[in-house]
Known about the structure:
- The protein is of the alpha/beta class.
- Among the domains are: 75 residues, Ubiquitin-like (UB roll); 91 residues, Roll (Ubiquitin-like (UB roll)).
- The chain has eight helices and twelve strands.
- The radius of gyration is 23 Å and the shape is flat.
- The two termini are 25 Å apart.
- The N terminus is likely disordered.
Amino acid sequence: xxxxxxxxxxxxxxxxxxxxxxxxxxxxxxxxxxxxxxxxxxxxxxxxxxxxxxxxxxxxxxxxxxxxxxxxxxxxxxxxxxxxxxxxxxxxxxxxxxxxxxxxxxxxxxxxxxxxxxxxxxxxxxxxxxxxxxxxxxxxxxxxxxxxxxxxxxxxxxxxxxxxxxxxxxxxxxxxxxxxxxxxxxxxxxxxxxxxxxxxxxxxxxxxxxxxxxxxxxxxxxxxxxxxxxxxxxxxxxxxxxxxxxxxxxxxxxxxxxxxxxxxxxxxxxxxxxxxxxxxxxxxxxxxxxxxxxxxx
Length: 297
C-alpha cells in the first residue's frame, strides 16, 4: 500500500511506500466494498493553481466509481494535487452529497476545499542500506529530473520498478521507506532507506494436472534448484507456455510461490485445475516472511 504522511508539515515530510513481495497489501478495493459514482467534482479555496490544472484534477475523478469512504476520497484528492508538485496540499474540507441513495453504485457530488500550498520541485535522491545494487542503478529507476515538479506518481513508479529489479535478483523481501525533506526554497530531497533482506534461491517446481501436459511444462522450466530466484522468470515462463495452459487459467489462482524463510528458498507449484487437496497443502506451507526478520541472509 502506498501512503503519504505529513502533508502540511513545515519542514520534514515523511513518505511511506513499503514495497514487499510477500504479503503486499492490496490497493484496489474488493468487489464486496461499496462504491460511489462521482457525478460532479468542485474544488474551492485554492490560491495559485491555474484553472487548466484544476480542470484536469476535477476531470480525473468525474464519472469514476470510487470507494464509499470519505477518508479515502480525501486521500485521492490530495494525491492529485501532490502529483502536480503541490506536495503539502491539504484538503481542509470534503463534502460528499448523495444524489440517489437507492442507486448502485451510489451517485454523489464532491466539493473539496483545498489549500494547495507552494509548488515543490525535485532535488536529489540518496539511498541507504543498498548493497546488491549501486545508487546509480537505483537512481535510474526514478524518472524525475532535478528542477521538475515533485510528482507523487513518479516516485511511486520508481519504487515499483526498483522493487521489480530487486525481484530479478532474488531479493523478494526487499522493503523501502522514503523520507522527503522540504527546504525553504520548496525543493525536496528524497532519502530512501532500503532493507534488501535475504537473497532467495530456487527450490522445487511442481505441476499438478494432466500428466501429459504436466510433464511438458515440467521439462520447459529451466530455473534449476539452487539458482537465484528471478521473479520475472515465472511471469515470462507463463507467457511463453500459454498454449499449454488451460484457457481459464488465472495465474493469481493457479500459481503458488512457497517461500521457505529460514532457508531463503522458493518452491513454485503450478495448478492446472482446481485441486483443493494440494491447495490446502500449499496454504499450510505458506509463511509470512515479512515477520521473519531473523531468517538466514
